[in-house]
Structure formats: structure tokens, C-alpha cells
Design brief:
The structure holds two protein chains of two kinds.
Chain A (H helix, E strand, L loop, with lengths): L6 H22 L2 H15 L10 H9 L3 H8 L3 H16 L11 H11 L6 H4 L2 E5 L14 H6 L3 H6 L6 H4 E5 L2 E3 L5 E3 L10 H7 L7 H10 L4 H4 L21 H18 L6 E4 L2 E4 L35 E3 L5 H7 L7 E3 H10 L2 H16 L9 H13 L4 H9 L2 H4 L2
Antiparallel strand pairs in A: 1-2, 3-4, 5-6, 7-8
Helix pairs in contact in A: 2-3, 2-4, 3-4, 4-19, 5-6, 5-17, 17-18, 17-19
Chain B lengths: L2 H17 L38 H12 L5 H10 L14 H23 L23 H16 L5 H16 L3 H5 L2 H15 L8
Helix pairs in contact in B: 1-6, 2-4, 3-4, 4-8, 5-8
């Protein structure tokens, strides 16, 4: 009489075989494979992990077989990848201080969201959406202030409340299409010129408050082209767009203007028109194209600050709309930026964002940002241009996917040492 | 805490910083014959240079301590972190190491370890992750060398991802001697002395250089 195999017997045998397989597999994983897995996981999650972290063993099985990319892909499932590594990378790019030491904001939340959702990184400069907490995913007993006007558009309350250990932002954030602003009567309206993170509250409040909106240009290029203003200053291009507030005879010396001041202003002033309709009032971003707009704008919707101090040099450029000219196409800068497409001129921040996002330099800069975040260093762009260019090409071929870029860079010998 | 304990604690903090790169890792690349240090070189081909060490920033220190001890961040830890974070590193650069930073890390490690001990002491002894060799119902006098060393190895593996070097083991052992000798007879016979010794050991190891650097 043969043995009758019941369902429970089959499950038991299967379970025993499975456990034996695991034990054999565990025994087969070398110390080197575990060391490599731990190194990759620590780099990706930017936290120390113990030897018994649950991801180490399955990752080690992959590194043992030489599947480092697979191990890195598994590592990006750790909540600290988005909740720490990517968040901190975004935070550092979001404000003037360029520091980690600040609470989550809408800029960093969008960087986390775009990475998590495998979106094209160019949407960071062109997307008409934002990320906020999905109320149904906020843990019970945790209060997150979520009033659109008071907690997202007038203050950072919402994101600050999300920045606590009991909340995994990678789980809680949800994409919401259509960026919003507040008009002069505190009504929530559509953002007339949405451009990803550069029209986020954090970025606009950091760079467009007071001043003359040259700083948003400086920092758009600093953060997304990885180039400080002094490196793309160019005295050899037209000064026709330089504003009236810039003295052409500083200290009575026109030569000083021609040889120094002009260099930066030919670049910033030609592009700052993109932000001509943006201002900050009461800690919130405002735009001159809105009906019932708040803030100080002329009847064309141009922020009055754009044409202030007009008596310094009355012959300077007067801003009458939000058009911009790309003066960074001169011989000195064309090679740096690697412009692509129609980039002679444009209108508004979204077109500026498109121009920047489609450049070769944007991709190279994203490689640097990710490399710095995951390899914990400060990669010098000038000295590593061939490396950055090659990685940038791969990044573009991979649909500008930030998460994949992390996974690819972390397994380089120079990054994690594996 | 008296001066003897403080000086022992400082010795604990400094030694792992001196020896961590030289010790045998449980994950060391022994089969390839190279140490983990040898990988930190610049590639001529790519002309990319990296730093041998980088600091964890404030938030990363907190998350790391929570991760390696398996201790969720609760109110006590959050309060300590909030009061210390301004002196923790704000970037990866080793130049950010300062005296206030070291003190803050030690304080934060102390609170995290205290919470870890609370969690593990509530568990059955043989199911504990770090303190399975310690009987907290008995005094420090009952802790054997073997159980102390086992706890050191467990914490070293969890916090540093490697075994302790012989130098580190020696320092940790002599630190125990100094700790015990600083106790009065009554204190030494009290069962709470076991917890205090483990708090001292855990804090020392969790606040060492290997715990807040990459």
C-alpha cells in the first residue's frame, strides 16, 4: 500500500526543503558577499546597518553571483533610501543655505516623489504637480496639519509635520496634479507658470523674496547645472538686458563694469525675465498673472521690484513681460551647458525649466548630485567631466530615472569600494 | 558618574576611532586577500576620488542608532535628539567633528541604549539580541568574562558590522574593571549595577567613531 500524501504533508515537506535550501544558501554566501551587501545597503540608505539587517542576506546572495545591480535595486527598497538619502539630497538643493539641517519641504518632497515613482528627472524643472501626504496613510494618532492655504501655501507646516520618525514619507507622499497658489483674497488657484521644484514654495520663498529675482536664476543654475555664477559669467555677450538698477560706472569706472560686473549680469539679467511675475508676500509665493493677485505688481503683472532703482542707469533694460533671452550660448558657455533644442529665448519659468532640463549639463549635474549623495563626497565637475558625461549619457538613455542612477552609481568601485 | 568612569568612557570612545580600520570584519574580504581599506583608492581611469571616511549627518546618526540597536525612535529619544541635533554634523565632511558633537553623540547614544535595554530586559533572556548573556536580576559581580565578551561581540557586530579587534576587546575589558572598581560595595551588590554596566558598555560602543561614520 502506497503512502497517501495529504496536502498538509506536502506543505510540510515543501517547507522543510525550502528551509534546507535557505540553510544551504546561507552557508554558501561568503563573508565578502555579505560585506559587499552591507556596504551597498549603507550607502543607499545612508544609515549604518547591523550585520543581521533583513536585506543583507538576500542582497549577499546576489553579490555572491556578481549581481551587484540586483543587490543595489533591492537596497533601494529600504525606507531610508527615500526617507533619508533622497530627502537630504533634495533638502540641500532647496534653499540658500544648502544644508541638511532643515525640515522637509515641498521641494524635497517632490524630489522624493519623482524618485520613488520612477519619473523623468526633467519633471523636477517642468512638472505641474506636487507631493503631499495622503491623509489615509498618516499613522493613527499623528497630527499632520494639511490645510492647503495655511499649511502648504502660506507655511511649511504640512511638510514639517511629516518630518518625524513615525512617518515613512516614501509611503505617505502622494502626487497631486496641478500646482497651486494663493491669490490676493486667499483663494486657492492654479499656478499659472508651474515648473516643478523651481516654482515650489520652498524655492521661491528662498530665492525670490525681496531682491530683483536674479537669485532664482543663480540658484537654478547652481543646483541643476552644478555651476556657480562666477563660472558662467561672460563679458563678451550683449549687455542689452541688464537692468536699470546696475551701475554702469561703479566708482566712476566704466571699465570695472565692462570687465567684472557685466560678466555675471549678462547672464542673470538676460534670464531673470522668466521670474518677472514672481514675488513673495507674507511667506508665500505669488504670481502676477493671477486674477486678484496679492503683492506688488504693475498692471502687466510684472513684480515692481524687477524695475526698481531705475534711476541708477536710466538707459538700462525695462522689464515689461516675462520673456527671457539665453545669453549663455556664447562660446564660453555653450560648451559648458550643452544646450539642446530651441534655446535662444523663452517666456516664463516653465520654458526656462525646459531649456535647463534638456541640456547636457543638467544630466551631468544630476549624476554629480546623486554621486555626492550616495558616495558621500563632493565630486569636482571640472576634473571629472569625462566620467560625468559618460554617466549622464547612460542616465538619459535610462529615461532620466533617478532611482536607477543611484543603483548604478553605488556599485562603482570608487563609490562603495566593492 | 565619577571621574574614573568618565575617563574610562573617554578611553572607550577614542580607541574604536583608532583601531576600527585595522580589525577583522566578519564581512572582510579575506578570500580576496585585501582589507576594506584598500578599496578606498582613486581610479585613474575615472579620475574620481572619494574620501576614506565620511560623517553621518544629524538625522543619519539618529536613524543609524535606531537601526543598529533595533530600537524605535520614541519620545525620549526624539527629545534628546532635538536638544542635541544643532551640534551634530550638518554634512559629511570630517572637518565637522567637534567636541560638542562628540558629547552630543555620546548623550544621544546613552538615551538610545537606555531604551534598548528597556526593550531587551523585558524579553526572555535567551531571546534577546544583544544582552542574551546577561542576567539582569543579578549584580555586576555575577557577570562572567565569557558573558561580558559575548555581549561585546554581539554589539560590535550590530553597531560596527565587524568583530572587535583584540585591542578594542582589551580596552573594553579594562573599562569594565574600572567601572566595577568605582562602585561601592552596596552598589556592586545591587542588581541594577548589571544594567548600569551594560548601559555604559552600549553607550561607549554606540558613540564610537565607527557608529557615526561611513
Amino acid at each position: 500500500m502506497g503512502i497517501v500524501w495529504g496536502a498538509s504533508t506536502k506543505v510540510l515537506v515543501f517547507s522543510v526543503v525550502l528551509n534546507l535550501t535557505s540553510v544551504i544558501a546561507y552557508a554558501q554566501v561568503s563573508d565578502t558577499a555579505r560585506w559587499e551587501a552591507k556596504r551597498i545597503l549603507e550607502r543607499i540608505s545612508s544609515t549604518k546597518v547591523s550585520a543581521d539587517h533583513p536585506l543583507i542576506e538576500p542582497m549577499a546572495l546576489m553579490t555572491q553571483k556578481g549581481d551587484y545591480l540586483g543587490a543595489a535595486q533591492l537596497a533601494t527598497t529600504d525606507p531610508n533610501f527615500l526617507g533619508s538619502t533622497v530627502k537630504l539630497m533634495g533638502l540641500k538643493m532647496s534653499t540658500r543655505d544648502e544644508t541638511f539641517r532643515q525640515p522637509l519641504n515641498d521641494f524635497a518632497a517632490m524630489v522624493v516623489g519623482v524618485t520613488r515613482d520612477d519619473l523623468d528627472a526633467r519633471l523636477l524643472l517642468t512638472g505641474n504637480f506636487y507631493y503631499q501626504a495622503n491623509p489615509s496613510k498618516i499613522p493613527a494618532g499623528v497630527t499632520v496639519r494639511s490645510d492647503m492655504a495655511n499649511d502648504l501655501l502660506k507655511s511649511n507646516n504640512h511638510y514639517q509635520d511629516l518630518d518625524r520618525p513615525s512617518i515613512d514619507i516614501d509611503q505617505v507622499l502622494m502626487r497631486v496634479d496641478g500646482q497651486k497658489l494663493l491669490d490676493g483674497q486667499n483663494a486657492v488657484v492654479n499656478n499659472p507658470d508651474p515648473a516643478g521644484v523651481i516654482t515650489s514654495r520652498a524655492f521661491i520663498v528662498a530665492h525670490a523674496s525681496d531682491g530683483t529675482n536674479r537669485r532664482p536664476i543663480e540658484f537654478t543654475f547652481r543646483e541643476f547645472m552644478c555651476v556657480p555664477i562666477q563660472e558662467w559669467a561672460d563679458t563678451k555677450v550683449s549687455d542689452q538686458r541688464i537692468g536699470r538698477d546696475i551701475d554702469r560706472f561703479p566708482g566712476g569706472d566704466h571699465l570695472k563694469f565692462q570687465t567684472t560686473c557685466k560678466g555675471c549680469h549678462t547672464q542673470m539679467d538676460s534670464l531673470r525675465g522668466a521670474f518677472a511675475m514672481w514675488d513673495v508676500t507674507g511667506n508665500r509665493a505669488v504670481n502676477g498673472a493671477m486674477t486678484n493677485r496679492a503683492g506688488s505688481f504693475d498692471n502687466r503683472g510684472i513684480a515692481r521690484k524687477m524695475n526698481k532703482n531705475g534711476d541708477v542707469y536710466a538707459g538700462g533694460f525695462v522689464m515689461t513681460d516675462n520673456s527671457f533671452i539665453n545669453n549663455s550660448r556664447g562660446p564660453a558657455n555653450a560648451e559648458i551647458f550643452g544646450w539642446r533644442g530651441d534655446v535662444d529665448a523663452g517666456q516664463g519659468v516653465q520654458q526656462l525649466g525646459q531649456m535647463v532640463a534638456n541640456s547636457k549639463r543638467f544630466s551631468q549635474c544630476m549624476v554629480k548630485r546623486v554621486y555626492d549623495a550616495v558616495c558621500r563626497t563632493q565630486l569636482d565637475v571640472k576634473n571629472n567631466l569625462p566620467f560625468l558625461s559618460q554617466q549622464a549619457l547612460d542616465f538619459e538613455r535610462n529615461n532620466y530615472n533617478i532611482k536607477s542612477l543611484f543603483e548604478k552609481l553605488v556599485i562603482l568601485k570608487d563609490c562603495s569600494g566593492i | 558618574m565619577n571621574r574614573k568612569i568618565l575617563s574610562a568612557l573617554m578611553l572607550f570612545l577614542l580607541l574604536p576611532a583608532s583601531y576600527n580600520a585595522c580589525s577583522q570584519s566578519p564581512f572582510s574580504r579575506s578570500d580576496s586577500g585585501s582589507s576594506s581599506d584598500e578599496v578606498w583608492t582613486a581610479s585613474a581611469e575615472e579620475n574620481v576620488t572619494t574620501n576614506p571616511y565620511a560623517l553621518l549627518s544629524a538625522e543619519q546618526v539618529l536613524k543609524s542608532m535606531s537601526s543598529v540597536t533595533n530600537t524605535p525612535v520614541n519620545g525620549a529619544i526624539t527629545n534628546e535628539y532635538n536638544s542635541r541635533q544643532s551640534s551634530l554634523a550638518s554634512d559629511f565632511d570630517l572637518k565637522e567633528v567637534t567636541s560638542p558633537m562628540l558629547i552630543s553623540i555620546t548623550n544621544l547614544a546613552g538615551v538610545v541604549c537606555n531604551e534598548t535595554l528597556k526593550i531587551e530586559m523585558a524579553q526572555a533572556q535567551n531571546s534577546r539580541r544583544l544582552f542574551s548573556s546577561i542576567d539582569f536580576s543579578k549584580s555586576v559581580n555575577v557577570i562572567t568574562d565569557k558573558s561580558y565578551d559575548d555581549t561585546v561581540v554581539r554589539m560590535s557586530s550590530a553597531f560596527w558590522g565587524r568583530k572587535p579587534s583584540s585591542e578594542e576587546s582589551q580596552v573594553l575589558s579594562s573599562g569594565r574593571g574600572e567601572f566595577v572598581s568605582a562602585l561601592s560595595a552596596n552598589e556592586a551588590n545591587n542588581s541594577s549595577s548589571s544594567k548600569n554596566l551594560m548601559l555604559f558598555l552600549c553607550t561607549s560602543m554606540l558613540a564610537s567613531f565607527d557608529s557615526y561614520s561611513f
